[in-house]
């Protein structure tokens, strides 16, 4: 009798453990906090092509939608999302800003000339400091911004559904 | 005499400078140890060499040089990434149980020991 109870307990415990592990197997590991600051800290960044410094106050105008996409030539998922960014470019209501993350200038320029330029403007973030000011975790990451407020944030490469979502958000 | 005086002054200034640097880097490491590397598995910013952690370390260094206090730096990271980035959770409604429960357990254990040995 005692042996049976032990056996049943062991089986229940094991199946419970199995269930927990199986459930979290396909779960995304990113933790995105709910109550983070949605306002963009003002920043200054260098233009990739002209080397001029630009201020965020000049870039992020009130009542205008801006999409900031963090990318690098060494990042494979960025290449994957590139075609969706090209699609997003066709929407005239969006100002698409690329933030080149910890990259070599020549490589970044080569990436753009080979794959096409979806961005209205490309800024550089050589030290990764700007991305942290934005609240980014890594690359690729995309922020949909209105004025100076972050409306939505996408961690990881964009997909077709994300593009539809962004366009819907903007048409509101 | 004058020569010696300047030499001592020179030594003192070097000592003072390196002392200041060391003090800064101690604080830098302390803060980095208290921040979670959000893209790593179970590592602090101090332990990690990921791109994210390297940038965070750079920001800590700059903020210290700008004269920000330790608390201000924690506040900055908290506002960007939420409380999760801090290793030490703050005491609030959600975490009060986390803080108080070990104390209750400790008191209860003390009570049990007391009862076993002193009350007969």
What does this structure look like?
The complex is a heterodimer of chains A (172) and B (120). Chain A has 172 residues and is of the alpha/beta class. Chain A has a single domain (44-171), classed as Glutaredoxin, CATH 3.40.30. Chain A contains 6 helices and 7 strands. In chain A, strands 2-1-5-4-3-6-7 form a 7-stranded mixed sheet. In chain A, a hairpin with a 5-residue loop joins β1 and β2. Chain A is elongated and about 80 Å long. The N and C termini of chain A lie far apart (67 Å). The model of chain A has no long low-confidence stretch (mean pLDDT 88). In chain B, α1 packs across α2. Chain B is built from 4 helices and no strands. Helices cover 68% and strands 0% of the residues of chain B. Chain B has 2 domains: 2-88, Cytochrome C biogenesis protein (Helicase, Ruva Protein, domain 3); 89-120. The chains are: A alpha/beta (172), B mainly alpha (120). The A-B interface holds A 31, 33-37, 101-102, 127-129, 131-133, 135, 137-138 and B 38-39, 51-52, 54-56, 58-59, 62, 79-84.
Strand content range of chain A = 15-25%
- N-to-C SSE string of chain B, H for helix and E for strand: HHHH
User: Could you estimate the helical fraction of the residues of chain A in percent?
Assistant: 40-55%
Tell me the radius of gyration of chain A. 21 Å
* Total E-strand runs of chain A: 7
Low-confidence stretches of chain B: none
Assigned CATH architecture of chain A:
3-Layer(aba) Sandwich
Characterize the quaternary organization of these chains.
heterodimer
């Amino acid at each position: 009798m005692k042996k049976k109870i032990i056996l049943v307990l062991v089986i229940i415990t094991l199946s419970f453990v199995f269930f927990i592990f199986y459930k979290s197997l396909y779960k995304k590991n990113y933790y995105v906090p709910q109550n983070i600051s949605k306002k963009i800290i003002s920043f200054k960044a260098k233009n990739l092509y002209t080397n001029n410094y630009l201020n965020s106050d000049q870039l992020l105008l009130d009542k205008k939608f801006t999409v900031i996409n963090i990318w690098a030539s060494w990042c494979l998922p960025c290449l994957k999302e590139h075609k969706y960014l090209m699609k997003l470019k066709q929407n005239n209501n969006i100002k698409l800003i690329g933030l080149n993350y910890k990259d070599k200038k020549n490589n970044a320029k080569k990436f753009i000339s080979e794959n096409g330029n979806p961005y209205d403007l490309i800024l550089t973030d050589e030290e990764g400091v700007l991305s942290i000011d934005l609240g980014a975790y890594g690359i690729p990451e995309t922020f949909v911004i209105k004025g100076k407020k972050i409306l939505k944030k996408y961690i990881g490469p964009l997909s077709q559904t994300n593009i539809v979502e962004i366009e819907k958000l903007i048409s509101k | 005499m004058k020569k010696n005086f300047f030499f001592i002054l020179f030594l003192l200034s070097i000592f003072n400078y390196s002392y200041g640097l060391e003090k800064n880097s101690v604080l830098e490491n302390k803060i980095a140890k208290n921040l979670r590397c959000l893209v790593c598995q179970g590592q602090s910013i101090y332990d990690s060499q990921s791109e994210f952690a390297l940038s965070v370390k750079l920001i800590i260094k700059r903020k210290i040089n700008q004269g920000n206090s330790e608390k201000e730096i924690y506040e900055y990271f908290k506002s960007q990434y939420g409380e999760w980035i801090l290793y030490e959770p703050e005491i609030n409604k959600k975490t009060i149980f986390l803080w108080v429960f070990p104390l209750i357990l400790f008191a209860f254990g003390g009570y049990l020991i007391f009862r076993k040995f002193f009350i007969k």
